[in-house]
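pinging the channel bc i need a second pair of eyes. not urgent but kinda urgent?? the chain im working w is below, pasted from the shared doc
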Amino acid sequence: MAGAIYNREFDVVICGGGVSGCTAAIAAARSGASVLVIAQNGYLGGSLTACGVGPMMTFHAGEKQVIRGIMQELVDALKARGWSSGHVADTKQYTSTITPFSAEGLKLILDEKLRQAGCEVLFHTFLGHVNVEDGAICSITVCNKDGLHELSGRVFVDATGDGDLAAWSGETMTKGTPGGRSCPADDHERQILRRRHGAAQKLRSGAPRALFPAGAAHGAVPGHGTGRSGGL
């Protein structure tokens, strides 16, 4: 079976078994293309199933649902099996709606959807090298328990999440803004670290000693079990 995969030329080879790679694979296969997905884990779903990233957000812009298609199919399938409550309003108002889901359930749903569409999947497989001829990707080299193998395709899709396929093919990559600033996530992490450092400095200097409201020292977590609201 593995040998047959390595010896074929696929219409579409997708690097990355996350949700974006899976939806691209399903769409291509339903259009009649032969599809191969390269997934580094032993299951599909990427960060949603491997890193505890959840809930999904957001399918809506205000009250209007703007993301449908295959992604909505996945949510509907999760709801039908009791693995998601569907789209619910975000009570914290960070975004329009959130979509809680079972990571284990999503693994199964994605596996079923790709199999039903006729996609092939190589699990535990990493992109190792990109072979370029005349400015176009002609094949990739992958690494897994079978060793190093070259895979050919007519179209290659980068769903790695890090732009590995594009970067290794020689495409220009930019980190941060044109002015050299880091991405917002990096800035946010630095702000958190600065706040923690400031709190630690205050503790070392002896003031203030109480970082929590009265009662927290006796085991009461603010806002939980005390009948009143509070927060850290």
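so Helices lie at 2-6, 19-30, 47-50, 69-80, 103-117, 164-168, 184-205. and The two ends are 55 Å apart (CA to CA). — does that match what u expected or am i reading it wrong
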